[in-house]
Write a structure and sequence with these properties.
- The protein is of the alpha/beta class.
- It has two domains: 3-210, NAD(P)-binding Rossmann-like Domain (Rossmann fold); 247-435, Rossmann fold (3-Layer(aba) Sandwich), CATH 3.40.50.
- The chain has 14 helices and 13 strands.
- It has helices spanning 3-14, 28-37, 49-56, 67-76, 110-119, 139-149, 189-200, 212-243, 247-254, 278-288, 294-320, 348-358, 390-394, 410-416; strands at 18-22, 41-45, 78-81, 92-95, 128-131, 160-163, 182-186, 206-209, 329-333, 362-366, 398-401, 420-422, 433-435.
- The strands form two sheets. An eight-stranded mixed β-sheet has the order 3-2-1-4-5-6-7-8, sandwiched between helices. A five-stranded parallel β-sheet has the order 10-9-11-12-13, with helices on one face.
- Helix 2 crosses helix 4 (67-76) and helix 11 (294-320) crosses helix 12.
- The longest helix has 32 residues, at 212-243.
- The protein is elongated, with a radius of gyration of 24 Å.
Length: 436
């Protein structure tokens, strides 16, 4: 076995390796904590001084990660910095930065490439580079490989390159970084071996695949599978609504089948960083091969149209009460993209707020996970979360349930709201409740 590879494998086995993690967001921060818990020293890199200051103070900026975990990690081997010169101190360089879409709905790899460019002056022999950001098949070979080779490295001999997609699910109490199986593909066989050793030191099960492209497409398949099935059930919701059928009762009945059916639930649209975005990464790349991914794109059209459909249902409900949308007071319940988290990425709730505001409604929101409306690139609301009291709820013309946090007092809402538009199936049928 080559000496460079053997030395790195030994470091991962005896946990003397230093792990560098780039991007301390929803993926990078839990991963950093996990490697520390497993006994490694970790350097967390981020260009956001606010995040660095918070972590150094033992403070978490995510609801689902408490301060004690941050303080414990700092005392056990986590350091954080904006200084990329410290790249040379790490044995593993794990990239966990965003991969959004640009204004044309095409892949934006600028966070990945800029991170690699910042790393490159300090990359050295005997390191492994792992990309975890969700992206299209070929990214690792097309974007990272040539940059490493441009510095004179022989990938697979004196430096190693893998792709290992993140699988975080913020707020899910059933799974954590340690217990979620880790997919990993290497550029060469040596890269695969080193990648497996890296993650085996912190994750219960590492699933090795034959290449970085296989790993990249695996991640897209996972999320496109959800996007397509959510698109299906959203379309079924529209059909059921027109037929006067409760789609949630239908799903509950279908879910009793012990084989051949998996329950997916409708909502006001897709949210989060992955499911609304990942299908576009594959459809964009597929065009390079002369392919049109019609099935995937159709599901995307259905999901993208859901906020407009919800607002049409709300408009009809107000009209039946002789109220126009313009001038009506509407309270949006829940603006995080999923329940019980503070994650606002691609939240359909915010699209609903914007559509209502564009129609002249007076919009407020209530979300204990988001006490102040954050600064966002696309949406601008100078608002704070409203406290849900009986009198406050009764003062609105309409309450729109967009994100079904467990902490909401649903019986109180049902009793005191004048009109509820329910996008999550949380309320029983009643004259003042409209399913959307």
């Amino acid at each position: 076995m080559d000496g460079i590879k053997r030395n790195l494998l030994e470091k991962f086995t005896d946990k003397s390796a230093v792990i560098g993690i780039f991007g301390l967001g929803y993926v990078g921060l839990p991963l950093a904590i996990r490697f520390v818990d497993a006994g490694f020293s970790v350097i967390g890199f981020d260009t956001d001084e606010v995040k660095i200051t918070a972590i150094e103070s033992g403070k978490s900026y995510f609801k689902h990660i408490d301060d004690l975990k941050i303080a414990s990690a700092i005392s056990s081997g986590l350091s954080v910095t904006t200084d990329f010169a410290k790249v040379s101190q790490a044995d593993a360089l794990i990239i966990c930065v965003p991969t959004p879409l640009n204004k044309s709905r095409e892949p934006d790899l600028s966070f990945v490439t800029s991170t690699v460019e910042l790393m490159l002056p300090y990359v050295r022999t005997g390191q492994i580079v792992s990309l975890e950001s969700t992206t299209y098949p070929g990214t690792t070979e097309e974007e990272l490989l040539p940059r490493l080779e441009s510095k004179g490295f022989s990938v697979g001999d004196d430096i190693f390159l893998v792709y290992s997609p993140e699988r975080e699910d913020p707020g899910n109490q059933s799974f954590e970084t340690k217990t979620i199986p880790k997919i990993c593909g290497g550029h060469t066989e040596n890269c695969r071996d080193v990648g497996e050793a890296l993650y085996a030191g912190a994750i219960d099960r590492v699933v090795m695949v034959s290449s970085t492209k296989v790993a990249e497409l695996t991640k897209l398949l996972e999320n496109i599978h959800r996007a397509v099935n959510i698109g299906l059930v959203n379309e079924m919701k529209i059909v059921a609504d027109r037929m006067g059928i409760d789609i949630h009762e239908v799903i509950s009945a279908a879910a009793t089948k012990p084989f051949g059916f998996t329950a997916y639930y409708p909502g006001p649209g897709l949210g989060g960083h992955c499911i609304p975005i990942d299908p576009f990464y594959l459809t964009w790349k597929a065009r390079e091969y002369g392919l049109n991914t019609r099935f995937i794109e159709l599901a995307g059209e259905v999901n993208t149209a859901m906020p407009e459909w919800v607002i049409s249902k709300l408009t009809d409900a107000l009209n039946e009460r002789s109220l126009p949308v313009k001038g009506s007071r509407v309270l949006v319940l829940g603006i995080a993209y999923k329940k019980n988290v503070d994650d606002m990425r691609e939240s359909p709730s915010v699209e609903l707020m914007q559509l209502l505001a564009d129609k002249g409604a007076i919009v407020d929101y209530a979300d204990p996970y988001v006490p102040v409306f954050p600064s966002m690139r696309k949406y601008h609301f100078e608002l704070q979360s409203v406290e849900l009291t009986e009198s406050v709820v009764a003062s609105y013309d309409c309450v729109l349930l967009a994100t079904n946090h467990d902490c909401f007092d649903y019986p109180m809402l049902e009793t005191h709201a004048r009109l509820i538009v329910d996008t999550r199936g949380c309320f029983a049928s009643a004259d003042h409740i409209v399913s959307a």
